[in-house]
């Protein structure tokens, strides 16, 4: 497909704002740009709504929602959202894009944390979500990360000492490996983030300080939320951050959202909930839907399919509490998958296993780092990784600073690899949108049964893959409306007005069997339904059939008696 924009760098807030406004101005028949809130630093959290308005309003169609940068430094996420929009608006003549815009709504939120991402992209610093102090009111004592040598990058800093825990690898002088218990002779070092010691220092012990910006927006949602002593970064209370509250409020106000994709980095995985408990404790039908969705993602991006709790996290790790995806799954009843972009380890030939191996040996860790450096040297360039270089530290005396800019090598792809990374996730999302429920009025039949009385029979169905309720979990709230049929423009004499049909399964409701040279089809529930009314009117009188659903939107069909 064609593309208009350039993907050789990561966009600042102003670039994203200009592009979103440009799309809205150029395509008023397809878009509306809204702000879902204002950040503490005064930036608007911008969301672009996209659909073909001539075939229905945004809220009258099943919707696909994608967001990036709930974690500020994972800026590949926002670039994927922008690439998706570029793909749509650069290919409006493409039949598949036209199908999407005709039948569905796309809600695109490039940056949940505009303040955090701007800090990440315009300073040497890193952070999880937002540039504001938490949980402490000020930086704490210890080594705080800082660009000491003024080269614009915060790297690693090693301090030579006979008490050091590290020594130089024999395989690559840039690599440090653990000192063995019986290593008594040679040069030894302690390694820290490049930085400066804050607070009082006794001149002997060097310890890393807690990160000053400790908020983790992806731990600030109500489902499974825990306090800071249990879950680091969780916030003062669920949705205590305005950024998380804004996107939660948007989703609560838009029940037509049927599918959520949350873009993250790094690692190269397709993840599905639950995250705070085992998938064995979730509804099997919902997990089956996840796996069907993730299979399509894997076809496009090649990433493994992993449940967050059972597969992705190390077995000894605690559950992730207060996650956005769990909030979507269990509070909103919406499937929400997370894509961890950029697979440096896989590209380096390491082929990670899941759940992750724990207690790796020092030799294994050394070999992994050497493999990554080899890939970096061969594919990005040897100048990316700065050799250990002497530097006169104002507190520690002579130290050495070295390493790479992990922000754009490990956490996010180097710019040369950015477009190929975001393109494959966009390819998945364009396919994933077509899984949403799709209401369809198959037939409207009218038969005169009296002087001014007519029987109206309507057959309708769900031609999408997802059922109209989307997720079984969503049915627990008892608020999710099923499918209803109504007639406008005629007087209904007999029959429900509207006729309540309950929910319709989608193509996911079919079961198939295959044995030898024969196959078979079964189904979980009704995918199509038929209903009828007796109405009063005149021969040739026009009327409208209206089909609606709580999540699957609204479609109409013109007919006459």
Compact overview of the structure:
The chain is α+β, with helices and mostly antiparallel strands. Helix content is 23%, strand content 28%.
Explain the overall architecture.
This protein is of the alpha+beta class. Helices cover 23% and strands 28% of the residues. Helix 6 crosses helix 11. The chain starts with 12 loop residues before the first helix and ends with a strand. The mean pLDDT is 95.
Chart the SSEs and their pairings:
Blueprint lengths: L12 H14 L4 E8 L5 E7 L12 E6 L7 H14 L5 H9 L1 E5 L4 H9 L19 E4 L10 E5 L5 E3 L7 E3 L10 E5 L1 E4 L43 H12 L3 E9 L3 E4 L11 H18 L3 E3 H5 L11 H9 L3 E6 L2 H4 L14 H18 L6 E8 L3 E7 L11 H18 L6 E10 L4 E10 L20 E6 L2 E4 L4 E4 L7 E6 L2 E6 L4 E9 L5 E8 L3 E8 L1
Parallel strand pairs: 3-4, 3-11, 11-14, 12-13
Antiparallel strand pairs: 1-2, 2-4, 5-10, 6-9, 6-16, 7-8, 12-14, 15-16, 17-18, 18-24, 19-21, 19-25, 20-24, 22-23, 25-26
Helix pairs in contact: 2-11, 6-11
């Amino acid at each position: 497909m064609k593309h208009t924009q350039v993907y050789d760098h990561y966009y600042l807030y102003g670039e994203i704002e200009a592009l979103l406004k440009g799309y809205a101005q150029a395509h008023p028949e397809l878009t509306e740009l809204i702000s879902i809130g204002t950040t503490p630093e005064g930036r608007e959290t911008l969301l672009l709504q996209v659909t073909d308005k001539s075939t229905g309003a945004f809220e009258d169609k099943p919707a696909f929602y994608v967001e990036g940068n709930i974690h500020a430094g994972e800026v590949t996420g926002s670039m994927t959202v922008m690439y998706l929009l570029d793909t749509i608006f650069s290919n409006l003549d493409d039949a598949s894009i036209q199908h999407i815009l005709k039948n569905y709504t796309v809600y695109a939120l490039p940056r949940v944390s505009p303040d955090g991402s701007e800090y990440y992209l315009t300073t040497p610093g890193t952070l999880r979500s937002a540039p504001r102090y938490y949980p402490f009111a000020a930086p704490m004592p210890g080594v705080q990360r800082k660009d000491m040598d003024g080269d614009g990058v915060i790297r690693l800093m090693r301090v030579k000492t006979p008490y050091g825990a590290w020594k130089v690898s024999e395989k690559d002088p840039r690599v440090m490996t653990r000192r063995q218990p019986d290593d008594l002779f040679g040069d030894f070092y302690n390694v820290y983030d490049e930085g400066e010691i804050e607070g009082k220092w006794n001149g002997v012990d060097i310890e890393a300080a807690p990160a000053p910006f400790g908020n983790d927006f992806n731990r600030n949602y109500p489902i499974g939320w825990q306090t800071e002593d249990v879950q680091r970064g969780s916030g003062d209370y669920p949705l205590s951050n305005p950024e998380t509250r804004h996107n939660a409020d948007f989703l609560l106000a838009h029940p037509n959202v049927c599918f959520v994709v949350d873009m993250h980095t790094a690692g190269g995985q397709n993840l599905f909930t639950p995250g705070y408990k085992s998938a064995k404790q979730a509804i099997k039908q919902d997990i089956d839907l996840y796996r069907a969705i993730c299979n399509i993602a894997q076809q496009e991006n090649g990433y493994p399919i992993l449940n967050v709790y059972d597969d992705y996290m190390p077995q000894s790790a605690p559950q992730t509490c207060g996650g956005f995806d769990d909030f979507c799954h269990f509070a909103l009843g919406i499937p929400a998958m997370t894509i961890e972009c950029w697979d440096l380890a896989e590209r380096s030939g390491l082929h990670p296993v899941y759940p992750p191996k724990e207690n790796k040996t020092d030799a294994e860790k050394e070999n992994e780092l050497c493999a990554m450096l080899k890939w970096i040297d061969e594919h990005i360039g040897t100048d990316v990784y700065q050799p250990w270089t002497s530097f006169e530290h104002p507190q520690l005396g002579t130290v050495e600073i070295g390493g790479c800019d992990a922000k754009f090598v490990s956490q996010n792809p180097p710019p040369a690899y950015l477009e190929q990374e975001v393109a494959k996730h966009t390819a998945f999302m364009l396919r994933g949108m077509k899984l949403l429920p799709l209401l369809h009025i198959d037939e409207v039949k009218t038969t005169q049964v009296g002087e001014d009385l007519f029987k109206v029979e309507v057959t309708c169905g769900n031609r999408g893959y997802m059922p109209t309720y989307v997720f079984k979990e969503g049915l627990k709230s008892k608020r999710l409306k099923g499918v209803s049929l109504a007639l406008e423009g005629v007087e209904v004499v007999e029959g429900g007005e509207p006729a309540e049909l309950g929910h319709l399964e989608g193509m996911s409701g079919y079961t198939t069997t295959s044995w030898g040279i024969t196959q078979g089809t079964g189904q979980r529930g009704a995918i199509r339904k038929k209903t009828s009314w007796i109405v009063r009117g005149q021969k040739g009188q026009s009327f409208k059939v209206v089909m609606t659903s709580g999540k699957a939107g609204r479609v109409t069909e013109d007919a006459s008696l």
